[in-house]
Design brief:
The protein is α+β, with helices and mostly antiparallel strands. It has one domain: RelE-like (YaeB-like fold). A hairpin with a 5-residue loop joins strand 3 and strand 4. Strands 1-5-4-3-2 form a five-stranded mixed β-sheet. It has two helices and five strands, in the order E-H-H-E-E-E-E.
Length: about 100
C-alpha cells in the first residue's frame, strides 16, 4: 500500500482532529482506516469505481472514504477524503500514480 504524501497528511490531520475532540477517537479513526486498507489489499476490485479505474472504500463509522487505484502489484491511495469536501479535489494527484493502472480482476 502506497499513500500519496497528501493522503498521508489528510490521515494525520483527521486523526489529530478526532483525538482533539475526544481521547481515543483519533486512534479509532486510524484503526478504521487500517481495517479498510487490509480489506482493499485482500480484494482491491470489490469497491465501486468513481472515475475510470479509481475506486472508493467507505470507512466504517467515520464520514471518510479511501480513494485508491490498483496499480501494478500494489494499491496507491490518492486521498483520505472527507465526504463534506469538494469531491474531485484529489484529481491533480492522478499524475503521481507510480505505474499504469491494473485493470484485471
Amino acid at each position: 500500500m502506497i499513500l500519496h504524501p497528501e493522503a498521508q497528511e489528510e490521515l494525520r490531520a483527521a486523526a489529530i482532529y478526532y483525538e482533539d475532540r475526544r481521547a481515543g477517537l483519533g486512534l479509532r479513526f486510524v484503526e478504521a482506516l487500517e481495517s479498510g486498507f487490509r480489506r482493499i489489499e485482500r480484494s482491491p476490485f470489490t469497491w465501486r469505481c468513481i472515475r475510470g479505474d479509481i475506486r472508493r472504500f467507505l470507512v466504517k463509522t467515520f464520514p471518510y472514504g479511501i480513494v485508491y487505484a490498483p496499480v501494478e502489484n500494489d494499491i496507491f491511495v490518492l486521498a483520505i477524503m472527507h465526504f463534506k469536501r469538494e469531491p474531485d479535489y484529489w484529481l491533480g494527484r492522478l499524475e503521481d500514480l507510480p505505474a499504469p493502472l491494473s485493470t484485471s480482476a
